[in-house]
Amino acid sequence: MAEVRDIVAAASELTDAEFLAVVRAVAAGRPGLGALLAAVDVGSAVPTEDPVTAEIVPDTTPRLPEPDYTAGGVPTFDRVRDRIEERVGTAIGSAELAHESPSGRSVDEQWEARKKAGKAKLDEIRRSLGKQ
């Protein structure tokens, strides 16, 4: 185990380019280390310079609430009423469009046919009870 520690200590002292060259040389003749070799090739494409780091400053400008909301973020009564009216209008419009479509007309025609058949059957039952 001491030998592995010595190797790790020696590898830690290498530069990135030297370390990649060592890993590439070790993995070159071993098919089981193909993924490591591919990772080394990707790693060597990464620039060796440290990227410029900048401090991220949070946005501290006070924000005004949207006109339909209170300062606490609660929607106003007008906003709630408008949303409800919008949803009701959407529901009514989609129902109207559904009835105007060919499949909607077909369903309406089927409903009317069943309604007539039910009325005819009820009249027949009433007639038969009246004859008894």
What report would you give on this structure?
α2 (16-27) packs antiparallel against α3 (34-45) and α4 (77-100) packs across α5 (102-131). The longest helix has 30 residues, at 102-131. The N and C termini lie far apart (107 Å). It is built from five helices and no strands. The chain has 132 residues and is mainly α.
Class of secondary structure makeup: mainly alpha
Give the strand content.
under 5%
**Strands, count:** 0
Helix content: 55-70%
Quaternary structure state of the chains depicted? single chain
Low-confidence parts lasting 5 or more residues at pLDDT below 50? Answer: none
Q: Tell me, what's the shape?
A: elongated
Specify Rg, calculated over alpha carbons.
39 Å
Mean pLDDT: 82
Tally of helical segments: 5
Please describe the biggest sheet, giving its number of strands, its sense, and whether it closes into a barrel. Answer: none
Kindly list the characteristics that best describe this protein.
132 residues; mainly alpha; 5 helices
Tell me briefly what this model is.
By secondary structure, the protein is mainly α. The chain has helices at residues 2-12, 16-27, 34-45, 77-100, 102-131.
